[in-house]
Structure prediction request, 583 residues.
Amino acid sequence: MEAVTATGLVKRFESTTAVDGLDLTVQVGQVHGLLGANGAGKTTLLRLLFGLIAPNAGSITLLGRALGGPGSAALDHVAGFVEEPSFYPYLSGRTNLALLAKLDGDVPAGLIGEALERVGLTDRAGSRVGGYSTGMRQRLGIAAALLRTPRLLLLDEPTSGLDPTGARAVAALVRELSAQGVAVLLSSHQIGELEKVCDAYTVIREGRVVWDGTAAQLVAQAPASAYALHTSDDDRALQIAAGIRGVRAGRSPRGQLAVAVQPDGLDALVLALGDARVAVRRLELLVTPLESMFFALSGDENVDELAPYDLAERVFAGAGADS
Amino acid sequence: MTRAALTMALRLRLASTGSAALGLVAVLVIVGALFPAVGGTIGKLNLPRGVSQLLGGADYATLTGWFRSEIGSVYGPLVMGAVAITAAAASTAGEEEDRILALVLAHPITRARLVAAKAGAVAVLVVIIAVAAWVGLLIGVALGGGGIGLGDTAAFAVHLAFFGLAIGAVALALGAGTGRRSLAAGVAAAVGVVGWLINGFAPLVSALDWLKYLSPFYYYAGDDPLTQGIDVGDLAVLGVVTVALVAVAMLAFERRDLRG
Prediction:
């Protein structure tokens, strides 16, 4: 069953078309990553799914029910937030959640405390939200979503502003909810975070879907990943790599060896180095399949023609951009 | 859900409105207590007609004139307008600008019901200020030597409440329709100030006399509720304007794209 079905969505803002004939399907129990560069249309798509803005064309079905116009009520069991969640700054986190919970009717006693505990905010629950850091507001936003016992979670950059521990905790929570049958649509520019949790991806560029599929399909179709290679004889390794089909090898400006290669090509390279008695001392993944795919789909250059370190540098530059 | 949204909106503004209400009571009590000492010495000021009209007749010789000038013409509507406008603009456009509405609307409440709840909260706050004005007036009148009937003090409070509802509805409609807090508050305040000036000066020029009918002040104080009691016609005009503007707010809020 589909948790989200968006068909032919179009959203225009004056002369700009932010979403242009976009189709999206998210399966129940699936964690679906939404990827795209700055201005690709990810946040606009989430605002459409929340009913905050109305599409110029197309239809949206959430949990099997059609989303009405902007004046209609939000759907039960659909929760989450768009951009950084905001609260009443002069009230405490707990009071904010209590006020929001009342909008859903009777909330079981203890649920607010439980939600705060799940996001690690119990100690600061009595403090005014105005004094919260960005990461704490993110976590409070997730707690507010959990209060609604969601079956569909729509999260826009949920790890933005979180430290690595907080980001890992959110990733674990997302996986836990997914295991319980909750569908999660996750927008993020932190590709590494998405890779840890997503079962499927949709990549958007200029309001259109440019790639859509499962994580396994992505790995199979992604351009070559890039690796830093440390060997006992880099010059010899470079010569060997040049002779293997599908392997591109080169040196970084600092002289470090790097290869861009598909997984089967990597196997061939390592075996060939072993046969030539060149020891592989360390093999570091510089660019993951998702990163290279994202870069290939959101950039203008041909990833397959880039030198490995150039590929890594471009991917890192793209991943660092705020989307 | 509407009740929960109403409670939520009230909770957020109850403290500030309570403070304003207590301040209004205190001022009315002080003004009433001052009358025996200074009222007779000031008497009726000889001011140009328009200015006199702006100050509720500027007749400080009687307790009724004293209260009409000191409270009824400026201070009362100023406090009422500030509370109503601030609450209405903040609860719609303010929450949209602060991106709080997005989280609220992720709950099963329609936008129309949310606006209705916000309007209801503004109405409750307006009633709190009106009751405070009535209580303060009763105490002030007693300290000032009496002479204004219970019904007339109540009539003043009711007219003040309807003025607050109408001016608050202007801010609500603008806030809901545009999502811009400063625009909603600014235009509503301008409606109040310009209305006050028009009510004072328009009658001085016969060709412009009709403009006074566009001023909320004309319906609030035109027939002097402190001496004439409730004017049902005037209240009906303010009431209809309020209901119409709330309806506009609901429709506008339902149909437009929200930020946040």
